[in-house]
Amino acid sequence: MSELSVNHLLGIKYITEGDIQLIFETADHFKEVINRPIKKVPSLRDITIANLFFENSTRTRLSFELAEKRLSADVINFSAASSSVKKGETLIDTVNNILSMKVDMVVMRHPNPGAGVFLAKHVNASIVNAGDGAHEHPTQALLDCYSIREKLGDVAGKKVVIVGDILHSRVALSNIFALQKLGAEVKVCGPKTLIPKYIESLVVPFEPNLKKALQWCDVANMLRVQNERMDISYFPTTREYTQQFGVHKNLLDSLQKEIVLMHPGPINRGVEITSDVADSKQAIILDQVQNGVAVRMAVLYLLASKIKHNED
Ligand code: CP
Known about the structure:
This protein has helices at 17-34, 59-70, 91-99, 115-122, 138-152, 170-181, 198-201, 210-216, 238-245, 249-253, 275-278, 285-311, and strands at residues 48-53, 74-79, 105-110, 126-132, 159-163, 185-189, 219-222, 260-262. It has a 4-stranded parallel sheet, with helices on both faces. A 4-stranded parallel sheet has the order 6-5-7-8, with helices on both faces. It has 2 domains: 12-136 and 290-311, Aspartate/ornithine carbamoyltransferase (Rossmann fold), CATH 3.40.50; 138-288, 3-Layer(aba) Sandwich (Rossmann fold). By secondary structure, the chain is α/β, with parallel strands linked by helices. It starts with 16 loop residues before the first helix and ends with a helix. The chain is built from 12 helices and 8 strands. Helix 1 packs across helix 12 (285-311) and helix 2 (59-70) packs across helix 12. The site of phosphoric acid mono(formamide)ester (CP) has 10 residues, from helix 2.
């Protein structure tokens, strides 16, 4: 397989296992490139990319921008907080105005689930979903699975537990789709109030006991409690949450094996994971961030190849 089956990256739901493997193989190449003294390649020299962020971001925004610059694309950045969105301009009007400046690709983070799918139907550009509400965050799942592959040799056959606030998480859904497509076994763990009903339909078992979940898994992906998306209380106190669902060194030491710990960031240190664990050798949190640049370079490169192919 030499090209993606899709013209947009809207969610892991819409891509195949073959697409994911192609992205990983391409990312292997770009990882080698970004470790060279000269980290830049001319692959996207004639491509212009707009990064549209309607929601806050540190890692994803910087990682996409760096990936685009490493590929020699022209880049424009848009942040809703300082834009005419504040004056009531619609999403379609905003994007069409940006596209009229001859933009080829749009990387968008938006608080509404499905915003990327909506945009792809209405504008003439390749769309990359950089997180849409509590729906999907496909490049995060790709970099997470790529990091598991790097650390453990393969994703197939591995046991992965996703722990914490699954209900408000776009990382959880994209990870579940990606891990299942790659042949991993997935479970979720957390307070029952933070486990969405759709989990059953995805055939993902729920394990309410964190120690049992950690004893079962090869990898634990610890999610942040997303207080900003909560309009009611989902657990009695943060202290109780941490006691039941936080990972700390004594808990890890009590397991009969060494597991890999992941976190998409930003971390609530001392809530879902203690600082000593987050900064330990078992945690691959900064490897995930580093791999994000190579994986996003691969996604952009492969989508841009489709644009060029469609023009021919
Ligand atoms: N992991 C992640 O999406 O982080 P940001 O919100 O900082 O982009």
